[in-house]
Design goal:
Helix content is about 75%, strand content about 0%. The chain is mainly alpha-helical. It has a domain of about 210 residues: Orthogonal Bundle (MetI-like fold), CATH 1.10.3720.10. One of its GO terms (biological process) is transmembrane transport. InterPro entries: BPD_transp_1_N, MetI-like, MetI-like_sf. Belongs to the binding-protein-dependent transport system permease family. Keywords: Cell membrane, Membrane, Transmembrane, Transmembrane helix, Transport.
Length: about 325
């Protein structure tokens, strides 16, 4: 098991290095001039030349890549051309909001997907009332679900807010729900939960169906195994058979799909944050693209890619723990 974990983590490090190389190459071959973007269109040629020298842009490409990696190791992602602050500082400001949104979206996706899978595999009566609307909603793109949710729950019913994170103050963690709870701000906590609910559910619906379908298929295959039929013949209820004999042997494909969907959530969060004016890195990225803010774009891309790679590495480790045969 230890050797498998070490190999999997080592491959994740290699993938992150490859990702950083791709980002560096794309940034280097871009037609835009980062120095002009940083100094402004009215900067003199002398000022531009001096800044290029100061930033090391006149160095050979291999030297620039080595400096890029060294800066990454030291947590230096450059200066944003738009905000004129270190990109790391900007990410520290905006990333917690995105992580909070994605974590709760993932929790909702796993819960909804689990209910979808178990209710279908056990043939619960009336479960189609839950599964059919979820399937229909999953066919709609997230931006359409978001707009429909705003129209229904904000404009028509008036029970959920349409934008922002709420009036509560963030604290040391940057996660509004945790900070308001620790501070004893019940009104701020309730407001944060209300603001979070709609965008989190919108982001969770499509991943929930993907997880639920894979998990249901795996559960149904396992229910057909001989040892499961033997357990049922001994008088165990379907729920006890599910809990004792089926879940662990069926969870591998569901874990794999959950890891993929977690990565897709971080990719899809850009659209959802735009619609709900959620102050996360999705909005930060969307504001950086029109201004050709290369350090900010590269920083967000590297962070999202790293999260995706690490999430899938952890999923592989969890699969190996659930089924030791995989690391043989």
């Amino acid at each position: 098991m230890t050797r498998f974990i070490v190999r999997r983590l080592a491959s994740a490090v290699v993938l992150i290095l490859v990702l950083s190389a791709v980002i560096f190459v794309l940034q280097s071959v871009s037609t835009g001039d980062p120095v002009k973007a940083y100094l402004g269109a009215n900067a003199s040629p002398a000022a531009i030349a001096a800044e290029r020298q100061a930033l090391g842009l006149n160095d050979p490409l291999p030297v620039r890549y080595v400096n890029f990696i060294v800066n990454l190791v030291h947590g230096d992602l450059g200066i944003s051309f738009r905000t004129h602050r270190p990109v790391v500082t900007d990410l520290q400001t905006f990333l917690p909001a995105t992580i909070e949104l994605v974590i709760w979206s993932f929790v909702f996706a796993v819960l909804l997907g689990g209910i979808f899978a178990v209710s279908g595999a056990l043939r619960w009566r009336g479960s189609s009332i839950f599964r059919a609307p979820l399937l229909v909603l999953a066919t709609a793109p997230p931006f359409l679900l978001a707009l429909g949710g705003i129209v229904l729950f904000y404009a028509q019913l008036g029970i959920l807010p349409a934008n922002g994170r709420g009036p509560g103050e963030t604290g040391p963690t940057g996660f509004l729900l945790i900070d308001t709870l620790v501070a004893g701000d019940t009104a701020g906590f309730a407001s944060a939960a209300q603001h979070l609910l709609l965008p989190a559910v919108v982001l969770a619906i499509a991943p929930a169906i993907a997880i639920g379908r894979i998990m249901r298929s795996s559960l149904e295959n396992t229910f057909g195994a001989d040892y499961v039929r033997t357990a049922e013949s001994k008088g165990l209820t379907p729920f006890r058979v599910l809990r004792r004999h089926v879940v662990r042997n069926s969870i591998g494909p569901g874990l794999s799909m959950a890891g993929l969907q977690l990565g897709f959530m971080f990719a899809g969060v850009v659209v959802v944050e735009q619609i709900f004016s959620w102050p996360g890195i999705g909005n930060y990225l969307a504001a950086s693209i029109p201004t050709s803010d290369f350090p900010a774009i590269a920083g967000v891309t590297l962070v999202l890619g790293t999260i995706y790679i690490v999430a899938n590495a952890l999923v592989d480790v969890l699969q190996a723990i659930a089924d030791p045969r995989l690391n043989a």
